Amino acid sequence: MFLRRGKKRKKKPLTTRGVRFGYSEQEVLKNIDFDLNKGELVAIIGKSGSGKSTFLKLIGGIISLNYSGKIRIFNRPKFLRKSKIGFVPQENAFISDLSLRDNIKVIGLNQGVLESISIKRSEEYLKMLKLDESMNKKPNELSGGQKVRFNIILSLLHNPDLLILDEPFVGLDFKNRRLLWHFLEKLKKKGKSIVLTSHLLTEIQERVDRIVILKNGKIFFSGNLEKLKSKLRIHYLCEYRFTYLSKESFLKIKKYCAYKNIEILDFYERYIMFGINYPKQQGLVESLFNKLNLKFQEIGFREPNLDEIFMKE
User: How far is residue 13's CA from residue 291's CA, in Å, rounded to a whole number?
Assistant: First the structure.
């Protein structure tokens, strides 16, 4: 009699369970459970101080002490899988006094890669990132955008399966950001799994497979933009400008919106932006304006982007 073997469970590039971390008496991360699938591109977002960079540094092994919980890279403890991880910090990882070529050789050797292989891989990535500069140049001779791209190349010399990028788009202009997004998409097609943080929310919603929001050290949300709209009950935005809006009238509008589950996402002098779950709610706020004898003009009704939804947070 033969026993049928069950299906072999796929090894996820990254799994965390119950991860906690803090400095002194301040707890930064609280019970983080997170999974990353092979070939997935995930953006972790949140307000400053929410723990985004700290979480990435824990995964990448930059922070290795004073945390509890489990971090697994392909089902093994992360310290056994360092060769699988490529970490791109916000700070430059290159050595300023060395040429690009020597940086590639030295950092490649530190990662356990032969010089010839490091040079070959770097040439491929230099071409993909359109970094057509002499290998004899020093990093300080590069532009800001070129330095960011070179920093990323150095993290890939050992051909990691998991790439972690901490705010990789900081300081990049539109052209360089698009170039970097295209590069990440090519890596994803090659089977790389990618986790990054960024404040460019509108670009994120168009490029990533999944959005993860950290709030007060916990995962508040994980999913796509449509799922987030449903969770926050904001599917539309309506914007109004008033001829005159007293403080008393605004307080009445605010109280009414709280009762009707309508969000006031932005308010400035005579302008209000509302977040609503269904179109009928627009009629409710306009009826209130009429009852309050307010003269108003609708200046926008549309679906929100991630930046605008995030204003609720």
Answer: 57
